[in-house]
């Protein structure tokens, strides 16, 4: 799996703080899971929600239970059904998983963040004022709150398992966190 990140992400990466509720999309679960980083980022939220559509998407590639177990080892995790996609989100014609993540984040209310790496889904979240963070942002946050000493080695693990990021953006992230 590979993903492309844009310069638009830098601002959100630099304004991170702890969250009580995070709603996970498939790509962050898969990438962080393959890189063995779910236990690292798990303590960043009191509650992690995984919409059913996301679980189905992950299951197409690999079993989700080991990933959920990693998160459950350090936080509360709930699989949740999304009965209806919020109409403004549906208008974006995103994938089922991204649409469910954004709809559930809206439903959970202020302070909830969607964990998304997909550029179109991130643009939708920003436009609809839905809290947002990505896989890299979770690692930056983990460093800022002292869960890891350095983000760069962990980001390199994500790159090794398939995340793609613009080198200029990566340099800005490292500069922003002093690495």
Write the layout of secondary structure elements.
Elements lengths: L8 H5 L5 E6 L1 H9 L3 H4 L3 E7 H8 L5 H8 L3 E5 L6 H4 L5 H13 L3 E4 L3 H9 L3 E3 L1 H10 L7 H9 L6 H10 L3
Parallel strand pairs: 1-2, 1-4, 2-3, 4-5
Q: Average pLDDT value?
A: 89
N-to-C span: 26 Å
Shape: globular
List the uncertain runs: 1-17
How would you write the strand order of the largest sheet?
3-2-1-4-5
Total strand segments? 5
CATH class of the domain at 17-135 equals Alpha Beta
Name the CATH superfamily assignment of the domain at 17-135. 5'-nuclease
- Put simply, the count of helices is 11
- Residues in helix, %: 40-55%
Q: Could you please say which CATH topology of the domain at 17-135 applies here?
A: Rossmann fold
Query: What structural category do the secondary elements indicate?
Result: alpha/beta
Tell me the strand percentage band.
5-15%
Structural commentary:
- The chain has eleven helices and five strands, in the order αβααβααβααβαβααα.
- About 50% of the residues lie in helices and about 15% in strands.
- With about 180 residues, it is an alpha/beta fold.
- The model is unreliable at about 1-15 (pLDDT under 50).
- A five-stranded parallel beta sheet has the order 3-2-1-4-5, sandwiched between helices.
- It has a domain at about 15-135: 5'-nuclease (Rossmann fold).
- Helix 2 packs across helix 4 (about 50-60) and helix 4 packs antiparallel against helix 7.
């Amino acid at each position: 799996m590979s993903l492309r990140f844009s310069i638009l992400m830098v601002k959100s990466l630099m304004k991170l703080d702890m969250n009580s509720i995070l709603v996970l999309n498939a790509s962050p679960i898969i990438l962080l899971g393959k890189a063995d980083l779910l236990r690292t980022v798990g303590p960043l939220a009191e509650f992690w929600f995984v919409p059913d559509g996301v679980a189905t998407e992950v299951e197409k590639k690999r079993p989700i239970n080991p990933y959920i177990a990693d998160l459950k080892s350090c936080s509360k995790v709930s699989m949740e059904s999304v009965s209806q996609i919020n109409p403004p989100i549906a208008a974006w014609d995103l994938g089922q998983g991204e649409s469910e993540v954004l709809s559930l984040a809206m439903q959970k209310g202020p302070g909830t963040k969607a964990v998304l790496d997909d550029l179109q889904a991130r643009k939708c979240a920003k436009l609809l004022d839905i809290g947002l963070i990505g896989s890299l942002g979770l690692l930056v946050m983990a460093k800022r709150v002292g869960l890891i000493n350095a983000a760069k080695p962990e980001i390199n693990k994500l790159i090794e398992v398939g995340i793609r990021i613009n080198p200029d953006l990566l340099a800005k992230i490292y500069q922003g966190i002093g690495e």
